[in-house]
Amino acid sequence: MRWVDNCGSDPWAVGNGAAGDPAPAAAASQPAAAPSLQPRVPVRDPNAPGFVKATELADGTIPPSSKDGNFIIGPTHNRAPELEVHENVPHGTLHEFIMSSADSRFYPGIARDAPDPKDPTNVVNTSHPAAYTRHISVYVPKQYVPGTAAPFLVGADGLDHAWPKVFDNMIAAHRLPGMIGVFISPGGGDPHGSERGLEYDIMFGRYAEFVESEVLPLVEKNYNVKLTKDRTATRRWERARAGRRR
């Protein structure tokens, strides 16, 4: 009996005395690898007809921020210097507090119902009331002056720990204003029927109202900061910065 792969070879041939059969000892000592089931990733030529015209850059380089246009970049990406800790820049403070679903009028809490253990293929989208707690991380820059209104950034799905380093470096380089970061963890779960799904997957303004009415006032109260209500504050800072560069 022989097994033959797609290339016509028979690495697992069983000797039957026919000419060309490998010796049993050789077959046992050098077993051939099974054929790979991983499909080859298709390669597309960016210079082929139909592709947008673009400038191809050397691998490991990226286009300068002052240039517009289409660029082809290679697979090597050097770590951005903004992601490194630099001791010669002021370092902000990272705070954290916890919010409870019992204190929220927007999200009192739900959890997805468990599927029938006898039918794991059954998709369950129903839910039931369930309490939760969520972590709120707050970055305050070293340059912040208490009592002054500061621009701020709100991030969902909790804190990415690269953010404090990015803030420290870019604020010190005057590439960002002295802004405050507010990073909000979801209430739990992930798919439809979960608290996180309710917060992120429904297209109306409840989450924004929750942030504005329940999260931001606690940030101001807990850390003696004032968050600007001027929606144009960052744009005006950018215009002033552009004027200084001229």
Name some characteristics of this structure.
single chain; 246 residues; alpha/beta; four-stranded mixed sheet; two-stranded parallel ribbon; 5 helices; 16% strand
Task: Report on the architecture of this protein.
The chain contains 5 helices and 10 strands, in the order H-E-E-E-E-E-E-E-E-H-E-H-H-E-H. The protein has helices at residues 24-29, 163-172, 195-200, 206-223, 233-245; strands at residues 55-56, 71-72, 93-100, 110-112, 127-129, 133-140, 149-150, 152-156, 180-184, 226-227. The protein is flat and about 65 Å long.
Explain briefly what this protein structure is.
With 246 residues, this protein is an alpha/beta fold.
Provide the fold topology:
Layout: H1 24-29, E1 55-56, E2 71-72, E3 93-100, E4 110-112, E5 127-129, E6 133-140, E7 149-150, E8 152-156, H2 163-172, E9 180-184, H3 195-200, H4 206-223, E10 226-227, H5 233-245
Parallel strand pairs: 1-2, 7-10, 8-9
Antiparallel strand pairs: 3-6, 4-5, 6-9
Largest sheet strand order = 3-6-9-8
Q: Count of DSSP E strands?
A: 10
Shape: flat
N-to-C SSE series? HEEEEEEEEHEHHEH
Cα gyration radius (Å): 29 Å
Unreliable segments of 5+ consecutive residues:
1-23
Distance between the termini: 81 Å
What kind of sheet is the major sheet?
4 strands, mixed
> Helical stretch count?
5
Helix content: 10-25%
Find the structural class using helix and strand composition.
alpha/beta
Strand content: 15-25%
On the 0-100 scale, what is the average pLDDT? 83
